[in-house]
From TrEMBL:
Belongs to the NAD(P)-dependent epimerase/dehydratase family. HldD subfamily. It catalyses: ADP-D-glycero-beta-D-manno-heptose = ADP-L-glycero-beta-D-manno-heptose. SUPFAM superfamilies: NAD(P)-binding Rossmann-fold domains (SSF51735). This is ADP-L-glycero-D-manno-heptose-6-epimerase. The keyword Membrane does not apply. It is an enzyme of class 5 (isomerase). The gene is hldD. Contains a large N-terminal NADP-binding domain, and a smaller C-terminal substrate-binding domain.
Length: 321
C-alpha cells in the first residue's frame, strides 16, 4: 500500500492518477474529506481506502505492516494566512508525528517542503542543507515548512529513506479548487476567457519592470515524475529543490496562455495587494544540480510546453489529470 496525504488536493490527486497509470492500485488516500470542493479531483481514481487526516495515526498502528511508501503532500499552503497556530498544527506537528511513525515502522517517506523557505533569496536558491537554518521565509507558511526542514535535519532517528522536496511555483491540472492560491496560469485562463485580457501585478521594485517579476514555474507532471523517481530510487536521502531550474517572467507565462487559447495578448497592470506586497518574491530559480547529481536525467517541460498542454488538454475541456 502507498499512502498519499493531501490526496484530494492539486498535487496529491495528480500523483494518485500517475501511480494508477503505472499499475499501483493499493492507494490509501489521506485528507480532510469534509472539503467537498476537492471531491472531483479523486473521481475515476483507483483508491483502496480513504482515511481522514485526523485518523491516520490510529490507522497506521493497525496497518503499518502493509505500507510500502508514504508521500506526505498535504499541508496548509495559504501564504496569506497569518495564524501561526494553524501552521504549527497542520504543517509542523502533523509532519513530525508522521516522521516518527516512519521511523517506528520503517517506512520510507517523501514530503513536500517549499521554495517559500527561501524568502527573498538573500542566500540564493541552493538546496545546501547547511544553509537551511539561516533562511528567512516571508510568511508563516514558509516559516512552517522551514521549521520542519530544520527539525528533520536535526533528528538522530530518521526513516531509513527520506526526502524533502522544495516545491517551487507548481501549475497544472487539478487546481480548480484552490481559489486565490491557484497558479497564475489558471487565473489567466479564466480572466482571458471572461474579458479577453489579463491583469498582472505591477512591480513595486525598482529593478523589475511591470510583468517582469520572475519565478521558477514547474509543471505538475514533472514534479510527480520526481516524486516517483524517489519512490523507486530509495537512496540519497536529504532535502532537494524541485523546480524547472529556469526562471521566467509572469509576462512570458501570460503571453503563452493567450497563445494556447488562440487569443491576442492584452495585459493590464494593477497594484500588488497591500497584504502581500512586502512579502512578495520578485525572483526565484531552483538550482537543480543536486537532483541531477544523483542521476535524475529526465528533461522538464519548458514553460511553453507546459502551458500549452495544461490549457489545451485540461483547462479548455475542464479535464482532470
Amino acid at each position: 500500500m502507498i499512502i498519499v496525504t493531501g490526496a484530494a488536493g492539486f498535487i496529491g490527486s495528480g500523483l494518485i492518477s500517475t501511480l494508477n497509470a503505472q499499475g499501483f492500485k493499493s492507494i490509501i488516500a489521506v485528507d480532510d474529506f469534509g472539503q467537498i470542493q476537492k471531491a472531483e479531483n479523486l473521481e475515476g481514481k483507483i483508491i483502496q481506502e480513504k482515511v481522514e487526516r485526523d485518523d491516520l495515526f490510529t490507522w497506521l498502528e493497525q496497518n503499518y505492516k502493509d505500507v510500502e511508501f508514504i508521500f506526505h503532500i498535504g499541508a496548509r499552503t495559504d501564504t496569506t494566512e497569518f495564524d501561526k497556530a494553524i501552521f504549527d498544527k497542520l504543517n509542523v506537528n502533523f509532519s513530525k508525528d508522521l516522521w516518527k511513525s516512519c521511523v517506528k515502522y520503517q517506512i520510507p517517506l517523501v514530503y513536500a517542503s517549499s521554495a517559500a523557505t527561501y524568502g527573498l533569496g538573500e542566500l540564493g536558491y541552493d538546496d545546501n542543507e547547511a544553509l537551511i537554518p539561516q533562511l528567512k521565509p516571508l510568511n508563516p507558511y514558509g516559516d512552517s515548512k522551514n521549521d520542519f526542514d530544520i527539525w528533520a535535519l536535526e533528528q538522530k532517528e530518521k526513516p531509513f529513506f527520506w526526502v524533502g522536496l522544495k516545491f517551487f511555483n507548481v501549475y497544472g491540472p487539478n487546481e480548480f479548487h484552490k481559489a486565490r492560491m491557484a497558479s497564475v496560469i489558471y487565473h489567466a485562463f479564466n480572466q482571458i476567457k471572461a474579458t479577453s485580457k489579463m491583469k498582472l501585478f505591477r512591480s513595486h521594485h525598482p529593478e523589475f519592470k511591470d510583468g517582469e517579476q520572475m519565478r521558477d514555474f514547474i509543471y505538475v507532471k514533472d514534479l510527480i515524475d520526481v516524486c516517483l523517481y524517489f519512490m523507486h530510487h530509495r537512496q540519497d536521502s536529504g532535502i532537494y529543490n524541485l523546480g524547472s531550474g529556469q526562471a521566467r517572467t509572469f509576462k512570458d507565462l501570460v503571453i503563452n496562455t493567450f497563445k494556447a487559447m488562440d487569443k491576442t495578448p492584452e495585459i493590464e497592470f494593477i497594484d500588488t495587494p497591500i497584504d502581500i506586497r512586502d512579502k512578495y518574491q520578485y525572483f526565484t530559480e531552483a538550482n537543480m544540480a543536486k537532483l541531477r547529481a544523483i542521476g535524475y536525467d529526465r528533461p522538464f517541460h519548458t514553460l511553453e510546453q507546459g502551458v500549452e498542454d495544461y490549457v489545451k488538454n485540461y483547462l479548455i475541456p475542464h479535464r482532470y489529470l
